[in-house]
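Milestone 3.1: sequence recovery, worked example.
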């Protein structure tokens, strides 16, 4: 009788240990899914920043082209600087929103 009692207690402890182990594995899977979700959010923000950096770089390219010591006859007009600057900023903003809408339509973001 004493051995049977010990056997029942051992089986009970074994069953409880298996339940705890399964619970720990499920918790680990849940944490892995949560971390994966956070990693995806960080990747989306990184992609958004890269698109913004690309649009600003194109604006800098245009500014660099106009900054060369070449005669373009734009320097003779008073508002040419402000018009060119506004055009570059507007073009970069439009390019950013076009790329953003394209990435949203393709469900990348």
């Amino acid at each position: 009788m004493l051995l049977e009692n010990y056997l029942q207690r051992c089986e009970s402890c074994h069953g409880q240990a298996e339940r705890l182990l399964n619970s720990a594995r499920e918790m680990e899977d849940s944490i892995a899914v949560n971390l994966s979700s956070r990693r995806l959010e960080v990747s989306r923000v990184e992609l958004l920043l890269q698109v913004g950096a690309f649009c600003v770089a194109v604006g800098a390219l245009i500014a660099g082209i106009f900054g060369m010591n070449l005669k373009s006859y734009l320097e003779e007009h008073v508002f040419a600087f402000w018009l060119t600057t506004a055009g570059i900023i507007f073009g970069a903003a439009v390019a950013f929103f076009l790329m953003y809408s394209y990435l949203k339509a393709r469900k990348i973001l």
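The chain is about 85% helix and 0% strand. The helical segments are 2-66, 80-105.
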